[in-house]
Amino acid sequence: MDKVKFAIVGCGSVSGNRYFPHIRALGRGMLTAVCDTVEARARPRAEEFGVPFYTSLDEMLAKADFDLLVNLTNVPTHYALNLKGLQAGKHVYTQKPMTVTVEEATTLINEAARRGLTLVSEDAGRIFPYNLTIKKLLDEGVIGKVVWARSRCTHWGPAIIDNWPTDPAWFYSKNAGPLRDVGVERLQLLTALLGPAKRVTAMSGINQAEVVVRGGPNRGKRIKVEEDDLTLITMDFGNSIFATLDAAWVNVRATRVPDLEITGQKGVITSAGGGSKARELTLELYRDEPQLGIRGWTEVQQIPPLTPPPPIQVIGLAHALDCIVEHKKPTLSAEFARHATEIIEKAYVAARTGVTQTLETTF
Question: Domain with 292 in it: what CATH number?
Fold first, then answer.
């Protein structure tokens, strides 16, 4: 198989902003169908790419010709649709998080294995060239033994984005929220860089009981916040290496705090910016080794250079296509995704009980 026929379910904001503009550049993939419960979202994409559209996943699975289901729907629906795809004999590439619970993740892993199918889960940060550079610096011991990492994923939230094209209410519903929608990206990056976490504790709650949509077709809509919109996590990676993560919907767009800062015994790595953020993507290294005449900050070039880099989600889909064609195990594995899901699950338990939780999964 040189080309993989794939179908997309979910034609909303993520697919429109990240995936569809790059579909034709995927040399190993060929889009053959699209699906969305809202016909007004599915039909224009079908016409754009000359493929059939469906408003029911069941119908698309029964009638369309494809090998890979690309799941770009909202967080609470990921598990059910992923399972349907696997049960229909399709490989699956899913937006993050793959599932809401560890039990669901294990079900998908077992189903894919039983059927000999490839299951790939976003976020693709683990294979993004920028982050591979950070991993290389850590593996080479450039900053010495890691002491701790601080990561931030506080976001203004979709209701505050000026012209969000669809109804953002689901982002604030139970089993969604900032930790599952965007915080999971940072959890997966931290575990990719530092390895599986051993223990987790957290504080979490609802800081803002209601939000008002700022712009777009749902401007003025009032949304009740049902899932925690503010979470602070501390993780223990063993060997006295710790990390913290904040994830929240906050009605402020600005910060001077780096997205990621890793402190070691001999230096510091920081990364910030990129994408829709106000700052350009930058990676900086501080080294403090006076015996070698080294002390100070330098900017690090990512390897290999990509100018400009494609959206990280497209890199993930390209990885899934490669894995199917080459019959290789995904780096963006379901086991890797499951571990991040357990951190989230156990973080909420720790926040409710005040008891640090031991993690059981690995990758």
Answer: 3.30.360.10
Residue 147 token pair: 């002491």
**164 and 274 assigned to the same domain:** yes
State how far the Cα of 74 lies from the Cα of 215, in Å rounded to an integer: 20
Judgement on whether residues 275 and 181 belong to the same structural domain of the protein: yes
How would you class 276 by CB atoms within 10 Å of its CB: exposed for 0-12, middle for 13-18, buried for 19 or more? exposed
Task: Check whether residue 170 and residue 240 sit in a common domain.
Answer: yes
Please check whether residues 144 and 214 belong to one and the same domain: yes
State the residue for tokens 């629906």.
77
Do 299 and 206 share a structural domain?
yes
Residue 309 DSSP symbol = P
Count other C-beta atoms under 10 Å from residue 306's C-beta. Answer: 12
Neighbours of 5 (CB within 10 A): 15
Q: Domain check: are 71 and 52 in the same one?
A: yes
What does the alpha-carbon distance between residue 224 and residue 358 come to, in Å, rounded to a whole number? 32
With residue 177 as reference, give the H or E element that holds it. Answer: helix 177-178
Q: Is residue 337 part of a domain?
A: no
Domain that holds residue 98: 4-124+311-332
pLDDT by residue for the chain (363 residues), tens only, comes to: 789 999 999 999 889 888 999 999 999 999 999 999 999 999 999 999 999 999 999 999 999 999 999 999 999 999 999 999 999 999 999 999 999 999 999 999 999 999 999 999 999 999 998 899 999 999 999 999 999 999 999 988 999 988 888 899 999 999 999 999 999 999 999 999 999 999 999 999 999 999 999 999 999 999 999 999 999 999 999 999 999 999 999 987 788 889 999 999 999 999 987 655 556 788 999 998 888 889 999 999 766 555 555 678 889 999 999 999 999 999 999 999 999 999 999 999 999 999 999 999 999
